[in-house]
Amino acid sequence: MHVGIVGYRFDYYSYTRNIVDKVPGIEYRKVKDLFAYVNAGARTLNRLANRQIISTFDLNNQFYDFNLNKVDLMHLFNGISYGHIPWVSTFETILPRFRNIVQRTHRSSSGFVSEWKLQRAFDALAGNTCKQIIAMSGCTANMQADLLAEFSGYRETIEKKLVVMHPPQDVLVSDFTDKQIDVDGRIKFMFVGNEFFRKGGREIVETIKKLREHHHYDIELTIVSALRIDGYAVEVNPVDVQRMTAVFQENRDWIKYIPHLPNSEVLGLMKQAHIGLLPTYADSYGYSVLEFQAAGCPVISTNVRALPEINDNAKGWMIEVPKNRLGEAVYTTESDRLVLSEAIRIGLEKVVHEIFADRSIIPKKSEQSILSIISNHSIEAFSSSMRQIYLNAIG
User: CA 292, CA 171: separation in Å to the nearest integer?
Assistant: First the structure.
């Protein structure tokens, strides 16, 4: 059976990382739809007004093209389609991805959107044109099942379409010796992520600075981040960014700060590092963990969301933090965030002491990291499974 043209909506990293060109021999075609045009208009209006007049969150995650795009199948990310073209959707948290529904993972009441809008979305998910919904992790699948438990009329139909597929990842080094670095001198840690504060960046810098001063550990820290303020999970303001930038400047003998870098060059730096870092407050997945592991860098991460599925103490280090029943860290109140921050700092300090007490642990965990990528994130296996999903969808 031949699969022809697969449509997709955006060139965002989430699409290029999970969808576009992931199945050889398939033509992927970028398409436009009603919600994309409304979204563009709303963004323009918000920019001209210098404030958010219209929320674009929900617009990003809905699709309707009046069936004008000449494609055989639509592959959405976090999206649902109201049209008649067969479609599948890869998602990171929950479907339908409306703001109030996503927020339900952090509060006892659902706070759902209008009944009409919600019913329309669930009708689309349960309908015949929706062929598969692809959760990026087991945690994501559990969140979806938890939502569907509240909507028994849709539960069975939609759950039959639910599968789990972790993102694919190229192996960047075949073993630790390929990195051509030793563990006898300076140990190189690395952090990658534009949302620096949400991903534990402040805790990293302040903890390593303290350990260097008190224990004289020879550590180099490379940071690749735009220091973006996204207002999610952690309270940050421009003054925080200015202060952290000053810390980078004052400690440039051991902190290498890079605001922007192409992904190919980031991967090159990972191959020169010993340890990857993602002690995050909140991440739906954690792509950088896969990239670090593929580059032979064991990772220090928290145990939120999908991270326990891709990292553990055999191939890296897990920092245990307070979580709710769905795997999200608890960060709703200022008190919650203080507790979370302290747990990250204590966990980081413990791991760094462990590393400097026995440096041989680095190449051992490096080898396990590489094996995990080969076993669990094979590009060939991912492509084969996705091809079958496409064939079933149009068959």
Answer: 10
pLDDT at 104 over 80: no
The helix/strand/coil state of 289 is helix
Domains of the chain are 5-168+378-394 (no CATH), 176-376 (3.40.50.2000)
Q: From the centroid of its chain, how far is CA 114?
A: 28
Q: Which of 340, 364, 206, 196 is nearest to 275 (CA)?
A: 364
Task: Quote the CA–CA distance of 12 and 385 in Å, as a whole number.
Answer: 23
Cα 28 from Cα 26, distance rounded (Å): 6
If one counts every other C-beta atom within 10 angstroms of the C-beta of residue 102, the result is 20
φ and ψ at residue 17, rounded to 5 degrees: -80, -30
**What does the alpha-carbon distance between residue 204 and residue 343 come to, in Å, rounded to a whole number?**
12
Look at the pTM and tell me if it is higher than 0.90.
yes
Q: Of 253, 296, 307, 302, which is closest to residue 273 (Cα–Cα)? A: 296
User: Token pair of 258, please?
Assistant: 């890079």
Q: Across residues 312-340, what is the average pLDDT? A: 95
Residue 287 CB contacts under 8 Å (≥ 6 apart), including other chains: 17, 167
Nearest-CA neighbor of 204 among 314, 352, 308? 352
